[in-house]
Each structure stands twice: as structure tokens, then as C-alpha cells.
Write a structure and sequence with these properties.
Layout lengths: L10 H22 L15 H9 L10 E2 L5 E3 L6 E8 L3 H11 L6 E6 L3 E8 L2 E10 L3 E10 L9
Antiparallel strand pairs: 1-3, 2-3, 3-7, 4-5, 5-6, 6-7
């Protein structure tokens, strides 16, 4: 009786490999898709923009027409002890936005320590043991880009006698 050779059919594993590749690609696309965070969800979560404004209420003035950029914002803590970075877009004339922060921050207990108005404007404030820097840059397309950074103030070490 002649020997029969065992034939290897590579097509079933190749089909599995193709299916896995398609499945991985579809999963990757779903994972990278954007999610709408513009409204309160079914579970009652507040959108990041509203959450940031609520955390800062009373500690720092935020223009009502400001749009906070949640993907560029990091706020740790709340009330008078928060630290972090807030990125926002504020429509209007750059001078008016500069004046809003320059004149509004002292009303919330911040003391202006330095300011510079130019193409890239900077305002520096101090309040208790924190320092706030407001950076403002005008953009022709979206309005004024405002970046507020709040950190702990660094106190110089006492000089040795």
C-alpha cells in the first residue's frame, strides 16, 4: 500500500490570523474614538469644564464666556487650596481679557506682583502660600488663549549667621 503524505493546509490558521488582525484594528479604532463630554451623563457626572469652574469658585475669577480645554487642564484640590493648570479660550479683545484678570484677581484675594502686556502677556499673583501665573496670548482664529498655573510659593531658606 502506497504511503500517503500528510498534506498541511495553511488556510485555516491564516484565516484566524486575518480575523484577529481585523478584530485588533477595530478595537484600536474604538478605543481611540472621541467621547462627547459636553453634557451631564446618565450617572450624573459633571462635564470637566463645569467641574473645573466649580472647583475654582471663589478662589479665582473665570470669565463666563471662557471655554476650558479639559485635555490641557489639570486641577488638584479645590477651593482656596487647589493647584495645577487651567487652559482656556476667552473671546474678546486681548486688552479686555488682560484687564479682567489684572483687576479681578485682587477681588478674590490675590495680590499682583508683576505684569507684562505684549504679544505674550504675563500676570503674576500671590495669595497666602501659592503663586498664580496668568499667561495670555491672542489668536486670530479662536480668541485669547489663557493658561493659568498655580503652585506653592517657594520660600527662601533663612540665612545662617
Amino acid at each position: 500500500m502506497p504511503r500517503q503524505r500528510c498534506r498541511f493546509d495553511p488556510s485555516p490558521p491564516m484565516n484566524i490570523l486575518k480575523n484577529l488582525t481585523v478584530l485588533c484594528a477595530a478595537s484600536l479604532l474604538l478605543a481611540c474614538s472621541s467621547v462627547d463630554v459636553g453634557s451631564v451623563g446618565k450617572d450624573g457626572n459633571v462635564p470637566p469644564e463645569q467641574a473645573a469652574k466649580q472647583q475654582l469658585a471663589g478662589d479665582m475669577p473665570i470669565p463666563l464666556n471662557a471655554t476650558i480645554r479639559p485635555q490641557e487642564t489639570l486641577v488638584m484640590g479645590a477651593g482656596n487650596s487647589w493647584m495645577g493648570r487651567i487652559s482656556m479660550v476667552v473671546p474678546g479683545e486681548p486688552q479686555a481679557v488682560f484687564a479682567y484678570f489684572r483687576d479681578g484677581m485682587p477681588g478674590a484675594g490675590w495680590t499682583l506682583t508683576s505684569s507684562s502686556y505684549s504679544k505674550l502677556s504675563l500676570l503674576t499673583f500671590i495669595k497666602a502660600d501659592r503663586v498664580a501665573t496668568v499667561q495670555l496670548q491672542s489668536s486670530n482664529f479662536i480668541g485669547n488663549e489663557v493658561l493659568i498655573t498655580v503652585t506653592r510659593a517657594v520660600r527662601p531658606a533663612a540665612a545662617k549667621p
